[in-house]
Structure formats: structure tokens, C-alpha cells
């Protein structure tokens, strides 16, 4: 036979093995290179995200925005904002307001302080802290006057704070007052009976669960809780009277402490405020220094997020239980 099959030579076999190994080597190298590229891109995007977060933190970092007051040669009016609900962990917390007040009063270039208020009120404890600190700082720095200026709303706990000021101003349409205390919750007893749900509570202490919304109210516990609110209300009234003094017309108008709220125009003859005006007009016409420098402490978004995250569990639990503590609103 002329076309006889021949086995591949050793050289041919070696050549085939070399090609296989080279192909395998290229495949492995390509995989390694791809992993390196993926790792480099991962590092790049991580660095980019980190740089972005750092930039945001620097841009919105907590600061007292005093417009570099140290570099200013003249005097100015300090502005401090009280905006939103007065409560712990909020922008209008006692810690933030008090920190701003101390910085403003200790600045020798501050000719006067304007506390601009736009708040429905909030915690009686937080409001009381600020009230006491204002009176302490006023006694410590008698030459620096503090003026509360109510914009849209200065109610309840917000008015509690304002009453500690030397004078209070508001717009003619501002809402002022609401000197009262409230606490709210829900009762689910009737709904549970209709659904056939049984509530099982285990406590040590006769009245430990007296605010449980899933149990019927008891007359003695309701009376006790009302006494707590009445005590807080008396404290509120005493502080307002101490701050406003003879300017209040409460003898002619006993409803001043009933929780009602008035416009700025109505509040003026009642003695709740001393005049009509804005932050800028008070700085210009009353303090005599029209330049306003913001001393309000601003928390960074990161701080606000972390605090809210930590407080959210307790808040959700309180909401689930249907309980809201005493609130100056």
C-alpha cells in the first residue's frame, strides 16, 4: 500500500503539546489580567466614593457660620435660628441652641443677639434648658441684649424659650402663644374585642403598664397622668410670668394660659410680645447694628443621619405602643 498511515513523530507530538500549553498559558494570563483590571476598577470606584463622601462631609461639616468673624473689624448682630420641633437629636435641640448662644454671647464683637424662631414647640425639658441658659447668659453679659423674633410660628415650647429674652418681636400675622401642654395616644381595646384578640401583659409594679393602649383606662391612672400634665403646665406658666413680668395682661385675659394662640397683632396688646418687626428690622432699628452674622450650629448630614438612625428604633417603638410624652404644643 502506498498510502500507509504513519504515527506522529516525537517532534510533532512535542509541537502539539507546546501549542496546548501556550494556549492554556494565554488563557490563565488573560484571566489574571482581567482580575487585575476588575480589582483596579473596584479600587478606583471605592476611592471615588470615599472622596465624594469626604467632600460632602467637609462641605456640610458642623460649623458655626460666623462668616469668619475673627477677620471682621467692626461689630455685628448675632443671629441664631430656632427652626422646627424643639427636641433632642433635632436641629432645634437644646444642645445646638445653647452652644450657639454661648458662642454669640462670648464674642466681644457681638452688639446684640437675635433669636429667630419658627417652631411649633416640643419637649418641655429641652425648652426649659434653653430658657434657663438664656437667663444665665443675660445675667453674665448684661451689656448684650437678646431679642426673640417670631417669624411664622412661635408656639408653646418655642414661646417658652422666647419669654426668656429681653424683648419679643413678631410679624402682625405671626402665630404666638399656645401656652399649654399635651400628651396623646391611641386606644385599641374596642378593636381588639371585635377582632377577638387577647392582650397579655406581665409587669411588676401595679401601674407599670398604665399607658398601654391595648388595655382599658383606669380612672385613678388617668387622674394621675393629668396631674403630671398640670404640673408641667404650672411650670410653663411660672417661667413665662418670670420672663415677661408686668408686661403680661393675664389678669385681664386669663385665657392667655389656656393653650390658645394669637396673631402677632393680637399678641401685642396682650403683652405676649413687645413690638412688630423682623430679624433685620430689630438688628437695624433696635440693636443698632444691621449686619447679621449667623451663629446657628449646623449639623452635617452624616451626623443627622447617624443620630436619626439611632433614635428611630425608640421612636418606632413609642409609635407602636401609641404613646407620646408631654409636649409643649
Describe this structure in words.
With 329 residues, the chain is of the alpha/beta class. Helix content is 47%, strand content 15%. It has nine helices and ten strands. Helix 4 (157-162) links the parallel strand 4 (145-155) and strand 5 (167-170). Helix 2 runs parallel beside helix 3 (124-140). It starts with 9 loop residues before the first helix and ends in an 8-residue tail after the last helix.
Secondary structure elements and pairings:
Elements: H1 10-59, E1 63-64, E2 76-83, H2 94-106, E3 110-119, H3 124-140, E4 145-155, H4 157-162, E5 167-170, E6 175-177, H5 189-195, H6 219-244, E7 261-263, H7 264-270, E8 275-276, H8 279-287, E9 292-294, E10 297-298, H9 301-321
Parallel strand pairs: 2-3, 2-9, 3-4, 4-5, 4-6, 5-8
Antiparallel strand pairs: 1-10, 6-7
Helix pairs in contact: 2-3
